[in-house]
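Page 42, continued from yesterday. The earlier attempt failed because a stray header line got pasted into the input along with the sequence. Redoing it now with the clean sequence only.
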Amino acid sequence: MISAGVTQDNLEQEIARATTSLLVLAKEATWNVYPGSCAYILSTIQDFQDNFAEENKRKKGRNEKKTPRLLEEVVKELEVIYADLYDINLYIYKTNRWRTIIEIQYYMKSQLKEVYRHKVMQNAPMLHAKIPLPLYATKKEEKFDIHWSNGTLLHSWKLFKWIQNSNRRLVIEEGLRELQKKRELQILYSCGTRMEILSKRKIEAPLFVLRFLSAAIVVLAIYLFRSGVYDYAVFFCVLLIPVSLIGINQVIIE
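This time it went through. Structure tokens are written below.
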């Protein structure tokens, strides 16, 4: 959910409206119960180069020390820094049978790089309502625990199972790829064998013609000798020499 047109005058109303949208999203995606009574904590979005898991642990430790407050109280604090607000994000930090704690994370314009900061200095802050998804939430119909980002035991177990299944899928996919490669090689080998047979047949065809032609010339030459036509008989004998040489050459190539 993204809200536009957030001014200093309607900041409280827009956050209340975003809270309602956030609870609707949470009820659709998670199995937790969300009481209508809400309290809020404030957090700044920090730029960090460290490990995400370690930063998340530190943030959780800081949030546990904060006292949840009413919306009007946290809005007063936001109004003081309104001119420097660039982005406001609402998350569900914790819920129980009595109340839902909303974490309001904000990012300052002064944290932006100078080139971009000058372009957005006069812009109103953006407002988002977000539900972070765990890695294993791949199907919309499968609901998850909203507290997963706090490192619950259930989240650790589901993450472990997801990693195991992912590794199994990778092994299966790799096996299928290897099988596909073998099948492709078999097809290529089969095609190569067929081409070899065809080339042999192409060689055998002219050899058959040459052998038939040689036999015909020999028979004709014998007949001419017996008929006393010696000149033609000698001519066909001479003609038999190149035909024989061509046949020998084809046999050597084969």
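Notes: Strands lie at 2-3, 38-44, 85-95, 100-108, 126-129.
Reminder to self: strip header lines before submitting.
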